[in-house]
Specification:
Blueprint lengths: L3 E4 L2 E4 L10 H5 L2 E9 L2 E2 L2 H14 L8 H15 L4 E8 L16 E8 L5 H6 L1 E7 L14 H12 L4 E6 L2 E5 L3 E6 L2 E4 L10 H12 L4 E3 L4 H5 L3 E6 L3 E8 L2 E2 L7 H14 L1
Parallel strand pairs: 7-8, 7-14, 11-12
Antiparallel strand pairs: 1-2, 1-6, 3-4, 3-5, 5-6, 8-9, 10-11, 10-13, 13-14, 14-15
Bound molecules: pyridoxal-5'-phosphate.
Length: about 280
């Protein structure tokens, strides 16, 4: 089965899907998106993702054009058509098609795109060994809580990580850890999980919220606080959370070992609890 796309009312092969070059998503990056994955073929945390999608759209005065029930049924229809063992679902809304001009016309029909691609989970050996990261200046705009299709700074950061031969770029604003280019970042210090608080500097990760809830259930203290670069490098454990990375140990940052440079006990425990949660 080929990858599937839905564009403005029609499902078809992704390779044949097109939008206009006058689409404001193409011209200005004027749009928002979500990524949902399946576990055992079922979309995971769909309500949480749709609610963040609504918040992102609202922040840009963008209409999602569909109710939650309609989004859910589009997702289910795409999954029925694509039938991959596991699927990565992208939902994308742009402000629509209009002659290029920065201000937007008030009554544009949004462009609605969903894509359905096979999800290839990260290799178990990588997950088991942990990954490496570099730190970089966070040069993004001031509303990183909006899941906007404007990902230029994230793209450049992940490219730098790739060129450095590591998995992720951990972003620092004035020396303070915000998040990764595609993930949220958590550190363990003195048995406490520390991570940047929700707010305009980070994306409020669906996985982040669920992992923090799992930690609290385990009686592990959680502190949503300022984490400086030196706290990151001096942590006993570092891990990433995200829809595709799940709970992923980081064992080296900027070539320096985190603790004994192996996945730590809290990361491993939360990884196991995550596996149970997702079935
Ligand atoms: N932060 C950024 C910049 C991301 O791109 C992502 C996921 O794509 C996350 C955090 C993690 O969010 P979630 O757990 O909702 O996938």
């Amino acid at each position: 089965m080929p990858d599937i796309a839905y564009v403005n009312g029609r499902f078809g092969p992704l390779a044949e899907a097109v939008v206009s070059i006058e689409d404001r998503g193409f011209q200005f990056g004027d749009g928002v998106y979500e990524v949902i994955r399946t576990y055992r073929g079922q979309p995971f945390a769909i309500d949480e993702h749709l609610s963040r999608f609504e918040r992102s759209a609202q922040a840009l005065q963008l209409s999602l054009g569909h109710t939650r029930a309609q989004w859910s049924s589009l997702i289910r229809e795409g999954l029925r058509l694509s039938r991959f063992p596991e699927t990565k679902i992208y939902l994308q809304i742009t402000r629509g098609q209009a002659p290029r001009d920065h201000p937007f016309p008030s009554s544009l029909a949004p462009t609605t795109v969903l894509t359905f691609r096979e999800l290839h989970p990260l290799e178990a050996s990588i997950r088991k060994a942990g990954v490496q990261a570099i730190t970089l200046d966070d040069i993004r705009w001031g509303r990183c809580d909006i899941k906007s299709v404007n990902l230029l700074a994230n793209v450049l950061a992940r490219q730098r990580a790739k060129e450095a031969g590591v998995f992720e770029a951990i972003l620092l604003r004035d020396g303070v850890v915000t998040e990764g280019s595609v993930s949220n970042v958590m550190v363990v210090r003195n048995g406490t999980i520390q991570t940047a608080p929700e707010g305009p500097r980070i994306l409020s990760g669906v996985t982040r919220a669920k992992v923090l809830e799992l930690a609290r259930k385990e009686g592990i203290p959680v502190d949503e606080t300022v984490v400086r670069r030196e706290d990151l490098l001096g942590a006993s454990e570092v891990f990433l959370t995200g829809t595709t990375v799940e709970v992923l140990p980081v064992v080296r940052v900027d070539e320096q070992a985190i603790g004994p440079a192996v996945p730590g006990p809290i990361t491993q425990l939360l990884s196991r609890r995550w596996e149970t949660l997702v079935g």
